[in-house]
Every structure is written in structure tokens, then in C-alpha cells.
Design goal:
CATH architecture of chain A: 7 Propeller
Order of helices and strands of chain B: EHEHEEHE
Number of domains of chain B: 1
CATH topology of chain B: Ubiquitin-like (UB roll)
CATH topology of chain A: Methylamine Dehydrogenase, Chain H
Structural class of chain A: mainly beta
Shape of chain A: globular
Low-confidence stretches of chain A: none
CATH superfamily of chain B: Beta-grasp domain
Number of strands of chain A: 30
Oligomer: heterodimer
Shape of chain B: globular
Mean pLDDT of chain B: 86
Number of strands of chain B: 5
Radius of gyration of chain A: 19 Å
Distance between the termini of chain A: 7 Å
Largest sheet of chain B: 5 strands, mixed
CATH superfamily of chain A: YVTN repeat-like/Quinoprotein amine dehydrogenase
Largest sheet of chain A: 4 strands, antiparallel
Helix content of chain A: under 10%
Strand content of chain B: 15-25%
Number of helices of chain A: 0
Amino acid sequence: MSRVRVLVGTKKGAFVLSADGTRKDWDVSGPFFAGWEIYHVKGSAVEPNRVWASQSSGWFGQMIQRSDDGGATWGPVGNRFAYEGVPGTHQWYDGTPHPWEFKRVWHLEPSLTDADTVYAGVEDAALFRSADGGATWEELAGLRGHGSGPHWQPGAGGMCLHTILLDPSNQERMYIAISAAGTFRTDDGGKNWKPINKGLVSNFMPDPTAEVGHCVHHVAMHRARPEVLFMQKHWDVMRSDDAGENWREVSGNLPTDFGFAIDVHAHEPETLYVVPIKSDSEHFPPEGKLRVYRSRTGGNEWEALTKGLPQKDCYVNVLRDAMAVDELEECGVYFGTTGGQVYGSADAGDNWTPIVRDLPAVLSVEVQTIP
Amino acid sequence: MTEKGASTPGTGEGGGAAAIRVILPQHLRTLTGLDGEVALELREPVTVRRVLDALEARYPVLRGTIREYGTGQRRAFLRFFACETDWTHEGMDAELPAPVAEGREPLLIIGAIAGG
């Protein structure tokens, strides 16, 4: 029987939650790297026992950890992230130029074809790649160098490259997203990039439809249809059917279109999940009710999923990388909260149960389906 | 307590080697797998820079955790204490006090008390 492994990054360590395909009884291991912020943990699709973790600390900087036994044991790999050439400047919060400074790795995306290759999205926003199992890292500098970099500005959480999507049908194509610059695409393996933000409207910007400057919170795709993208923006849930060339809003009947997390059902490319959050000044669910919203129509028409989720006095947040799906026949959906709960649904969101309730604030959730 | 600057001037590369004692903050001890102090054989002059060079040579995992890559600057939330004296701003190349250079007192690397 297949198994699932839920990889959880928190403010104070990493946790691995494991279960068989019934997803009823969970084994919880951790904390790994106790006391450190674990922004992201993700396993390789090529070699599932290879798992990467971004471990960071305001005191001690950035570490990258790698496990080759499914998260049971870990070892540090290379942690030097040097921008290529003279880094230059981006805009600071007040619009003045500010030098690019490496702060941390937000997201690790293992290659779909090579277990030794992994991408890292970092703050201040840049994309790095290691092709030697994490020993060394090189910047894909064409992203920052394509021209608009000096106009990028940090979001409230910092100027982070938080989303990396690899096109499973085209090794040369990938998408990334930066808060607050927007979404970008490369069609030549990372050498050249173009902003793909047409259709986004951000009213906080002097030019609400500018080519860059949008606070994109997360982007998701279904692997069978990689030209279709779904985005949770600062405000607005968006969709593109042409690899990001054009976007249209699909917020529809959501109670609020602010939020962070978004994901797609493993087997139904038109089934989406978001967790609406009240506003950018009140980072908790509307009315104190924790609700996942599901659309089975690719957006616009949404239904609230509430069974098993707290429907009163709930004031947690669900961060951008804290939702994931498994690939079992009945798709499982998982998300973590800043209150330390990780909820799972073994029936595509109809019913939810807490796998764990009292972890440190959850920063990220990823899932591996192990044959 | 030994006052700052009480160390004997270094004798350069020709000086004798001493076992310098270093106490790391807990998170760095965990990274290195250390239970207690580190002892480093180091010739004079004994400075923070040379202690850190030796420390990182023995424990490469510490690279980037105490000093920034590239600039080599101390990370902002770390401080150095020697003989109960804050040595943080003495400069990387200032000679440490004799009790530290002679291994009678440890060099403490401390994470600033800040945040949660």
C-alpha cells in the first residue's frame, strides 16, 4: 500500500508526519533542527528518500540540510549563496535604492529529472541552483538581470522568491514568483526571464497594472496541464490559461479574495483550494471560521469546506507554502496554520482532521506519496 | 577578571602554540555535534579572526554562521566575550587577553538575547 509523508517546516524546527494510505494513524517525528526556522522542506520526485530542508536563523544565518533516508537523518550541505557579480540595488520600502542582501532561503524545489539538482528561491529575491547535491550553489542571474530588478520592492514579509514551478513537459520552462515583484517565466532553462503579470491589478501601486511590482503570494499548477496557472495574489485569485501571458480574476464568490495558499487537486486539474484570509491588516480567517474553499470549476464558483475545521474563535493564518496535496487515488489535502495545527483530509477536502495540534507556527507543508 | 589589553604582545608565527578554549552558543554546538568547549591549537597572535579561521577549518559547517560569507564580518546578533569583557567591538585582529590566549579562560561566542 502506498504511504504518505508530510514534511512540515515551522518557526522552531521541522517535523515529518507519516501514515499509510488510509491516512488515519500518523507517526510524528521531530523536531529536527530544533529552535531554527525551517522555511521549507521538500522531497525529490526522482529519489523520494532525498529530502531537502531550508534551516535559518537571524543569529546564525542559512543552512541547507539534506536527508537521504526520508527525513530520518540529516546532514548539512553547502550554504553559500553569493549573488553573481555586483548585486546592485532594488527599491526599499520607501522607494529608495537598497543593496541586494542575502537573508534566507524560502523555497527549495528539487529537479524533476535529477536527484542532485535543486533550485532555491531566496530573500532578497533571486534564484539559485545546485547541481551537485547541494554542495555548491550558483545564481541564475538572468532573473535579476533582465532589467526590472532595480524596481522590485519587498512585501511585508521581505523581498522573497517564494514560488518555483518546474514544467514537467518542458525542462527549459519554469515559473517563479516574487513578493512584491510578480511572476516570471523562463523558456530557456533559466538564462532569460520575462515578467508575466498582464491582467494583474494591484491598487496599492502607483500604476495598478504595471509590468512588475505585484505582490503575488503563491502560484500553483497541475502537472498534466502546466500551461494553466492559478495564483493567490495579495488580493485576488487569478488564473492564466496561456503560461502566464494573460491573467483573469476567478475570485468569484469567495468571502474575501485575500489569502496566501493555493493548490490544485492531484487528479482534477480544475479543482482548486484556497484559504481565504480576512485582509492584509487582519491575517486571520473571516468571522473566526477556518474554511478551505474548493472550486471544481477552475475558479469563480467556490464552496466552503468546514467539516472538522474550527468554526468559531479561530484566528490563525495559513501561509503561502503551507498547503499541499498527495497523489493517492482519493486525493489528500493538507495545510498547516500559524497556530501549529496541521490538518489533513483524505477525501479531497470534504472532511478534515488535525494530524497534529500543537506544533510551532507552521511555515510550510509538502507531501510525498511513496509507492 | 582580566582587563582588556592585558595580553602579552604576540610573538608572531614563531610563537608557541596554545590550546585556545572556545564556547559556542547552543545552536552551533548542535550543528557541530559538540557537547562542551572546543580546544584549538593556535600560534600567537591569538585574535578573534585567527580563532574563527581555526574553528571553521575544523568544523566547516560553521562557515557562514558566525561570520558573513564574502565580507567576513561578524554576524549582527553575535558577540564575543573574553575574561568577562565584551570583546565584540575590539576588532577581529586585536589580540585576545592573555588568559584566553594561554587557554586559562575561554573565548565565548554568544547569541544576542533578542527575539523569541
